[in-house]
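Translate sequence into structure tokens.
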Amino acid sequence: MLITALSCSSFAAGTHASLIQDMENKELTFNDLSQVVSGLRDEVAGMKVLLSDLQKGQTQQRMQRTRRTMNVEEAADYLRMPLNTLYQKLQKGEVPGSKPGKRWVLYSDELDKYLEVNRRNSVPMTAEEQNEVILASHRRKPVKSDWRKEHECKTPKTEQV
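Result follows.
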């Protein structure tokens, strides 16, 4: 029978979880501390394994999605652009692509960037971003009385005896 590290850690976490639940019902003593800490350590180790597996899967999916090569027909479908128009834009250099031989090669991530740059309507800003833009564009002169108070030379007063 083959037991993986994940199943062992989940089994250990399950047994320690029941131990921890039992400990929650009663007051912990110094003698119980080592069992509780080892249970928590096993749970953290299991979570690390799960998290690393998730991260590996996500990075592999991202790499597959971002750096996919396309031919001109696939790129025209992707961009929803007529094939002749795409050929014209490739020859003018408006659309990113390379021609290592007789055929054009395009990357999906470069086409995504091309679409973002040539977008007519920009992505709507969040309320925080709008607030920052407004505050940056409206600069006011400080009131002289406030300015003087802020920029006065602050020297510590020494007591004389």
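Note: Residues 1-13 have pLDDT under 50 and may be disordered.
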